[in-house]
Task: structure prediction
Amino acid sequence: MNKERPTKDAIVARHPRSPEALLSLLHDLQTANAGNHLTADDLALAAAHVGVPLSAVRDAATFYSMFSLAPRGQHIIRLCASPNCHLAGAWSVLDELRRLLGVEVGETTADGLFTLELTSCLGACGVAPVMMIDDEVMGNLTPERVRGALARYRRGR
Amino acid sequence: MRLARTHVLVGVDDEARLAGVDAVLASLHGALAELGLQGEVQVVETGSLGISGHGIVIAVQPDGVYYAGVTPADARQIAEEHLLKGRPVARLRLPTTAPVARPAEVLGRQRRVVLANCGAIDPERIEEYIAMGGYEALGRAVTEMKPEEVIEAVKKAGLRGRGGAGFPTGIKWSAVRTASDPERYVVCNADEGEPGTFKDRLILEGDPHKLLEGMAIAGYAVGAHIGIIYIRGEYALSIARIERAIAAAEALGILGERVFETDFSFRVEVRPGAGAYVCGEETALLESLEGKRGWPRIRPPYPVTHGLWGKPTVVNNVETLANVPDILRRGPAWYRTLGTPTCPGTKVYTVLGHVRYPGLVEVEMGTTLRTLIYELGGGLLPGRSLKGVLVGGAAGAFLSSRELDVRLDFDSLAERAAALGSGAVLVMDESACIVDTLGSVLRFFRHESCGQCTPCRSGTEVLVRLISTLQTGRADEATLAQMIQIVGAMRAASLCPLGQSVALPVRTALSEFEDEFAAHIAGLPCPSCAATARALGWASR
Result:
């Protein structure tokens, strides 16, 4: 939480002033926020930089599932719920995640550390069931491995 | 590759990273240094070796020995025993019955063209790609061939799009070449989202230069100077690796200004998606590239004339473009010796689910489903029997065990009203419930429907409601008829293939597994459906 974050201006300056840069810019702005979300200020900043109306930025930001306008936890857990992981036992992983985190899908833990989400196929089906925590893909999940992964993130990775 | 007695290939992918591959590499390098083997043994970090579920996998070549679940201590033992003394460490070898342990036999059944370098070269080193004949085709194209000749070669080879629809690539390129607007684009669709598919990811991570070469050739052929790779946002490693590959190619003058010192310039950019399956549909992808929500466009006009920013645009899948360098280098006649007369070449499949060796294979077009499951996938787990196969991902077809002799190519499958789709082959044994699996497919579509057109937006919602009644013992005789009626309307009236394609899994599941659906109407929910109902908080009867 204390790690140094680049300023919003510095992030914006890395992107071309053109609409095609919008999604990349939103990704970077979102990652820079402790809440892993896009603020109203971010949207306005992005609109001004790429030169489209605020409504167009909001339109894009609410369409894609990787963006959130509501604050989320420090780490986003995305459990794959697609047919292959489903067959491989994703529900038992989900049960364990719910039990350990004490939240339902879409919610954030009280300590603000984790948000639990479901996702479509992550393309790691050879090791189903699969989840991602932030950028890290984890496969062959069992309740034990889920416990280990969460413990690791709680210790700060 | 530097000349060495032995190469040790270490698969570095997400799974291996998780398992601590860095420590294994450090231990291996340390041991080699101590034993004085550095000159003789070269350690090569490759992408995935195509073996999943076995932790850190390393292969010792030319011995053809595969080790699995390797720890740092094991790495030292392998160095001391195998690399120094020539005695393979039996304890760590993959079981001899596993096809992966006998690459000569099982990789031999595969026909690797697109994946030829995956797992064999270090994807982070452009020199290794070049040593395998890489960028030779691009060099020849820009220095010796006219753009029209390149297109002609691709047409002669009979290359068809690997994204799902099987449209002839040469015809697409010609349409862009002859478009009146001189500003043109090549877009690579790397928004791989079809459930059960990761072939594009393996190419992006295992052999990124092959894709870049294919794109540059496409750019030269159609007269484009900018190529854009749209990669799904979840593929963090793919994005990083392809960006480094672009920088390496530019540094050598292979991409960027004056390709191979000719007047042709070609710049490649990477754009991440942000989590939307519909963006795999080419016009939605173009909208997304323009910074908008990924809503499919009404077609015609098609992207070949009105694509990115309204300019003529080639949109090709990763696997399609990765076929191009070999077509030029080895010639259309060679390419046509592979596959079938109407579908030449190879196809990459992901064989998943209840098979002994889930993973990725590349075989000639027209290979039967039976071969894929029983030879390359190693068959089912001991004591299990096959119930059915979902071929082509969520937008694919449920096939029963009676249909194992179907040949997998665009034409044979089209005859059976199934699409080749993504190449995903999800194998289900008798423990799987088809109703429950279809439920998962339908929830996927409900989540991914972009909401633009009513048939798809409402249709997916109602279908999920109907399947949930089947899964909780609240369905009646009318439920199945309603589902059929809804997918019929969606097929006829949806704006894009997403909504239209929902009909395929629903119709095939209901017709091939009629008894199973009937049992869910008559009786109590099966254990799989009950588990789903619990997980999703549905009320049961």
In short: Residues 434-536 of chain B form a domain with the de novo design (two linked rop proteins) fold (CATH 1.20.1440.230).
